[in-house]
């Protein structure tokens, strides 16, 4: 299939910036959104830091009828979707409602809403459990609520593959556009910074317990000790290029050019991890060589073993220090399914402005043979590779490229 799938709009809700330009300014300046949790008292837990979307007042953004129906995750996603549609200049009232769909990813669903309803059940009784609990917790709820609010009635769905899911959703959205849809709103937004969501993540044993915001999440650093969770993400408007031209789109960020995904073998199988293969599949799908890639946005797990695997895969494909590598998520934390779409959005902003954003706070360990970007680097960016991995063995890679829209 040769259909060109372009990105015409971006909506970002991030711990270090609410809205695309606020996020981009903060990221270029290495301003972090990681701090001590405020959404609940973390004192009793070993991990106390998170990337929270600061100052988000839902009443300022959504109608009052929607608030009791929705988890914070969905509230953030609805705002991100509105920003993305507005950025693309899409009028959903004037378009074919069955030619537009929604494809999102989710890692945890509506954890905070579910926790609240369980507390109501235990403390007050079943009559105090909201009827909205039947769907507000569900993985597909962001897709459903966005579809309902904006009348996007075409092919839609959700994918669940942890942090890799954000790229998997974009890839499936590309597939839907190639099959005939004019527009798919795609990406991911997660938010599980509540006690229930917190203890679920603590069971992984991979969360950092360092209480210093600038030292807790240090991928590829000799002092790496785990990751810091965050909330938020990005949603993108993906369109058939010809359909975008017909409706008069005046600006395109770039195109989703290639995708690859693999699944790791069992840890005790003696077989190698397959992230390198996912990269190679994505490059082949895009029709580009390793030498064409201007920057790699790393998954950046923050775990020494996982960092070693990723660094080895990048070096095997590109060579020793042969391509700039960056991980802006050191300023947001790992956002579940929202992390990779945010990296894709960041890659398009890097192309727009000719800037590779930095990996904040990290000093590259000599164990990794990478060209890690730790300060803003001004250089033309035409093609970027974004990597994401999910717990359990998911690996995904997406190649994006700038587009001349004149």
UniProtKB/TrEMBL annotation:
InterPro entries: Beta-ketoacyl_synthase, Ketoacyl_synth_C, Ketoacyl_synth_N, PKS_Beta-ketoAc_synthase_dom, Thiolase-like. Keywords: Acyltransferase, Transferase. Residues 2-402 form the Ketosynthase family 3 (KS3) domain. This is Ketosynthase chain-length factor. It comes from Streptomyces wedmorensis. The keyword Transferase applies. It comes from the Bacteria. Belongs to the thiolase-like superfamily. Beta-ketoacyl-ACP synthases family. The keyword Transferase applies. SUPFAM superfamilies: Thiolase-like (SSF53901). Pfam families: ketoacyl-synt (PF00109), Ketoacyl-synt_C (PF02801).
